[in-house]
Amino acid sequence: MYKSFDVARSKPEVNPTSTGGSTPPKALMFHAIYRNPGGEEQSFANESKLLKSIGYETVQCTTENSKISRGPWAAVTAVFSPRVLVDALRIIRSERPDVIYVNNLWPAFSASLLVAARAAAIPTLQAVRNYRLATPSAKLRADGTCTECGSTNYFTSCVRNGCYGNSRLQSLVCYLSAAAVKLSVLGWKQHRFVATSAMTARLVEGRLIDSGRVVVRPNFGFEENEPEFRSTDSVVCVSRLTPEKGVLDLVRNWPQGAGSPSLTVLGDGPQYGEISSISAALDNVTLAGFTSHEDVIEILRDSAASVVPSQWAEPFGRVAIESMSVGTPVIYATSGALADIVGPGGTPLHTLEESSIREALDRIFGADDRSAIRRSAYRHYSNRFTSRKAATTMRELINEVRS
What we know:
Elements: E1 6-10, E2 26-33, H1 39-53, E3 57-64, H2 72-79, H3 82-95, E4 99-104, H4 112-119, E5 124-128, H5 154-160, H6 168-184, E6 191-195, H7 198-204, E7 214-216, E8 234-238, H8 247-252, E9 262-266, H9 272-280, E10 285-289, H10 293-301, E11 305-308, H11 318-325, E12 330-333, H12 338-342, E13 346-349, H13 354-365, H14 370-384, H15 387-402
Parallel strand pairs: 2-3, 2-4, 4-5, 5-6, 6-7, 8-9, 8-11, 9-10, 11-12, 12-13
Antiparallel strand pairs: 1-3
């Protein structure tokens, strides 16, 4: 029906009369699926489920970035796509949504989607789950420098150094795409950027993004019941296998010898081959590859701890709250938002040297009462990151952009 995206519908989980009307309000949702799907796909699914839980009918519009052909026209449409503009206007006129939720624009949807929403005067929430709005690489350190070139001058340095895809042209396209997005919503009072953490908000504000238009709302989970606090001796790391995630050094320096716990790595990515080669030579490290979300949760539940070894300004770290939601403490790198997200739900990992990894493991496995650590992790999750709390915030956000 639409050339730019596929459409799926979901009915609300509550009676429309409970939301104050005879018919349910409607949310039109957009997400460009990454070539290597990860946490943002799970976030999109969770946001849809959340909207349904508060009485919204959802219309999910998705496309796969892997289907994009390469070439000059692809570069143009990554900045602005006439086809997306036409299709977005068509579905907005047809569905007449009360709110639009945008999870990921890059690169398939482009700023065209926001132009259509603004032209139709539909209140719009746009998720900010990485730093694409600031830098072509989409990856920053806590001080705002690009992880690839070390600069805060994202145009002259990141483009010149080809920080996206080792290509100056692709980096320029990324920069122009972000500029088009920011210009398309400039001064639009019915639009909000929704950042997952205060750090994410801080790093994307400015450069045509007014701080008053950026709101902070963390990711959330649907685990609502206190879990069984199991006692196990294995550790798990769930991550994309890319340089900024730190998994390669974690595996390379994982403690060996008697009494060292086992490590299971779940995930896929460019560093899979190198990590596979290293882990094959270690007795207590297993690389399990891509794992379904349902299986990830069960493995987290059966682990003594999870490790999030990110070496960049992690915007949030979804696996951290998923771990705490089943009572599994998190060993977290101190970069990015993780320290604030995890807090009493785990213990810090200051470096990826073997001595630092051992110290963090000792704080978990050497505790007098390991069940107390697990209870603390779940308590922290239940106090801050449940879907009940997220539902309240979502209602408030929608009311704000609709007013």
